[in-house]
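Wait, mind explaining this?

_____
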Amino acid sequence: MIRTRFLAALLPVALTACGGGGGGGDNSAQTPMAPPPTARAPQTNVPAPTYAAGSGRLVMFQALNDVRDALGVGLLAQDAALDTAAQAHAEYLQANRIVGHDEASANAGYYADTPLARARKAGAPDTEWIGEVAAAQGAGVDVAADARGCFDQWYSTVYHLQGVIDNAESVGVGFVPARNGWFSTCVLMFGTSTAVPPGPQANSTPYAGGQQMATHAIVTIPRAGEVAVQPGFNAGGEQPNPAPDLSAPGRPLMVYVNGANGEVLTVSSFRLFDGTGAEVPTRALVSEAAKPGSMGSAVADPNGQYLRRNAVFLLPLAPLKSGATYTVSFAGARAGTPLSTSWSFTTVAAPVP
């Protein structure tokens, strides 16, 4: 049976998720800094990518930018240096049948130790911040399906999802089809260059700089009106696991706001209702910084500082029903300023027997 394995990228702080054969990282927090006036607004146009038609790399690039465009967080431009680094790492993961961010020089296909080192070796500027997500899934029979499957897994997680929609500006894509009994390997490497603070770390995206959406904007995932939403979440496949006590949670729901100054998003109410109006049992998951100002039932990130200060998740305690419409209501505050929103989405229909 083909299983999926995936590994979280570093999100808002200098901290590397590890698992599935990956190494450790720096656990020191990156101090939030104010965005200089040259931080850019979300990009609405980028050059057409040069990946081969039908390739796994093109499928992932298009899936990534389709989601980012729909959310209004800004498109990512293809980055040749990051392409080289991401592809080298995908080859390394495939050669060693592992999933992780760090490479060991004694292993086959070694390129460089960390995402930052690989990007610099490939020609990325010394000032550019580099983040990464990696995954392995599929049997290689359908390259496009494997590549899309990698992205769909990232999109339906907690820690990975933050890396997919944050304030990066460019992306490199790596993909190697399954071979020799191992899964297809997928890597996205993100670059942030505009108005960034100094001192990029091994695998990290800063709060400041890059693409910054409006301070009043509220991003919700799933999006309002989104259909074919996956009802469940393979929490045990995400390393580290954001809900280690739940054997089969539902698809995580996210509220995300501008965090350029390291603003904290707190939650006072976060509720999920099914089509009959009945409330679904859930758990609100917040950053350590948000816990003191949030409702008492909110749970601080069980893995420390992986959750961004500007994100809050709602985790159903069991998988959602297939082919059902759900309504979400959220109330909280960004840096003390109240905000609220509500929206609905529909899960994917159950497969026909």
Q: What stands out?
A: The radius of gyration is 19 Å.
